[in-house]
Amino acid sequence: MLIPRYLSDRKLLVYGVFLVLLVMVLTPLMINLFYWKYENYPELQDQVVQHQAGYYLLNFLLTSTFTVFKIISDWIKSEREKRRVQTQNMQSELRFLKSQINPHFLFNTLNSLYALTIKKSDLAPEIVLRLADMMRYMLYECNEKWVPLSREIAYIENYLELERLRHGQHADVQFTKQGDVHHQRIAPLMFIPFLENSFKHGLARSLSTGFVHVHLEVTETHVHFRIENSKPDSHPQPESRTFGGIGLTNVRKRLNMLYPDQHVLQIIQDPLTFRVELTLSFTEEN
Predict the structure, then answer these.
(1) Has this prediction a pTM greater than 0.70?
(2) Burial class (CB in 10 A: 0-12, 13-18, 19+), 126
């Protein structure tokens, strides 16, 4: 009863006092028991009396060893439970963050398609095909923790082409790639918030011609994503609104969960441009 009650409450001093008292009470009982047991062996009785201090020390060492074992056992169980809860929380948080992201992209792409159908544009069928590919990626592939980098790039290309067709001559939209893409895997929809931000809060607000330039550099160890866009012909938006519905805080949170100490995020802006640079290291897990 002492161990669960006082060790679990971290009352170590109280537990130590009770432990000493327990040894002081039980050891004399044990000595008397041995003494009576050996009543027909005077020599053994003399040894029991002579080694009383040893019995006290032995009992104290035994109870202390059991205490240490209990503390270590409880710590291991506690750490295992904390890791389990942490993993569950992380999975729940990622599902929540992804649920925030996906509907927002769908809303934007449907708006683009609606604008083209209003104009009866011949580009509408192409938009439908690209939208279908984007939806397939989001619905069936993004449920995994890691996805092929090639599929994330295909999503970026579809997204940029959709915006390029929608804005026409009003926008300079460019996408360049450097390096070989083969077996690399990353977390899904990692770059999309920055893409959406560039169009929603940059190009879409410009009265004159603006630009969005995206560059992706891939090596064996990392992928470097850079996006730069022109600022609108108006006052800049507060940072809290920089990433629309998901927010910069959630973007950083997802990066910290999926790429702890394995990412570098830089946000640079001047009066005319806004630039984001994100480097992700490929991990052993993916």
Answers:
(1) no
(2) middle
Residue 137 DSSP one-character state: I
Residue 233 tokens read as 């012909």
Q: Which helix (H) or strand (E) holds 278?
A: strand 273-281
> Residue 180: how many CB atoms within 10 A of its CB?
10
Pairing state of beta strands 263-269 and 210-218? unpaired
Query: What's the CA angle centered on 35, arms 29 and 40, to 5 degrees?
Result: 155
Please state the separation of Cα 260 from the chain's center in Å: 7
Dihedral over Cα of 96, 102, 105, 109: its sign = negative
Please name each of the domains of the chain with its CATH number.
Answer: 2-81 (no CATH), 90-281 (3.30.565.10)
For 39-96, the pLDDT digits (tens) are 676 776 666 666 677 767 777 777 777 777 777 787 788 888 887 877 777 667 666 6
